[in-house]
Amino acid sequence: MAALAATVLVVLGIVDLSSLGDLVSRLVPIFVFVIAISIVVNVSAQVGLFEEVVSKLEKVAPRHRAVRPVVLWILLIILAVVVTVFLSLDTTAVMITALAVPLARRNKIPVIGVAFAVVWIANIASLPLPVSNLTNLLALGSDAFSGTVEYLSYAWKPALIAILIVIAATAIFTLYQAKVATNEETSTVMRSSDAQRRNPLLTTCAVVVAVLMPVLASPIPYWLSTSIAALIILASCTPRRKDLISVDLVPWNSLLLVTAISTVAALIHTTGVAGWLTGMTSASPASYIELASIAGAGGVAANLMNNIPAFLFLEPLVSTPASYIALLIGVNAAPIITPWASLATLLWHDQLRRAGVHIKWSTFMILGCILAPVVVLLPVAMMV
């Protein structure tokens, strides 16, 4: 439908064909990445890879009643950060939430504290690599960055401070929850079954994911590495578990949403609707005030409309690597106030609902209003 609308716009002369082609060339690699990484993650989840990871975490944790919850919380936070950075924030929202709730219940860790830790990390820690967030991939597809290496050279400092802030915030909130909340239930430590340990497909997925994660930080095109990983996993499923291969492995609704956004982006970039934005900043914004203004605008827009259209709408404001990173800080870290600001937040809330954990949106929004300015303004300060 979006493609048809774009075609009509081109025919009517509203959208320039060459500009539309440039935008499509930026979006196609992202589509390929989303399809491939979805296959890798969802097949891995079905064969029990993530349950196996949690089982390993529980096995290495000490048995001491006071120390065990602390160690498991630290390991869970590390896992959430790693998954967000290398496998995207949406993966964290779905997979880590599903694992974190039972892990918290079994080990006397405040469930509400862990739940907020996951959603905050998913959004705020999604800056380090292009693959961490679809908005980062859109930025990488612009003319501002020559590739992943240059992106990393500008993003690593603000990304690091954002991660440290969110870890500190989750620690404070979890400690608070430990004092005011009662533990819901406990159970025995989950152990992997012998059949699961002997599953060759589980081993294949584990090896593929372990190799893919560092490769995603390399100069190898992200869409190529994830495509190869997906093909290896699909080839492994074919002779053993054909039932795992289905159209449901890919979030087609999300892809259709991104496709629709491409039509809106074509209008934004070629009709001059957002041309008035270009005069709001200097040609090469570098001061803290200028970069913080860009980040703040991104955060406000993301909470009003969602982070992806917010990035596309405000992109005319930016042209340099530093300004792009500032915008990404705003649209990545700040969408923790309104429920619709980030798709990852909605996926997270749905997982909590399925697990019987109830969190009021009013609580989410109040805490987000407190944390969002901090995780936007301090990382921007690391850029000047």
UniProtKB/TrEMBL annotation:
Domain Citrate transporter-like intervals: 2-327
Subcellular location: Cell membrane
Keyword Secreted attributed: no
Main location per the UniProt record: membrane
Membrane topology: Multi-pass membrane protein
A Pfam family annotated for this UniProt entry: CitMHS
Keywords: Arsenical resistance, Cell membrane, Membrane, Transmembrane, Transmembrane helix, Transport
InterPro entries assigned to the protein according to its UniProt record, in alphabetical order: Arsenical_pump_ArsB, Cit_transptr-like_dom
TM annotation in the entry: 27-50, 70-89, 109-127, 159-178, 199-216, 250-277, 324-349, 361-382
Domain of life: Bacteria
PANTHER family (alphabetical): TRANSPORTER ARSB-RELATED
Family under the similarity heading: Belongs to the ArsB family. Belongs to the CitM (TC 2.A.11) transporter family.
Name of protein: Citrate transporter-like domain-containing protein
Organism: Corynebacterium casei LMG S-19264
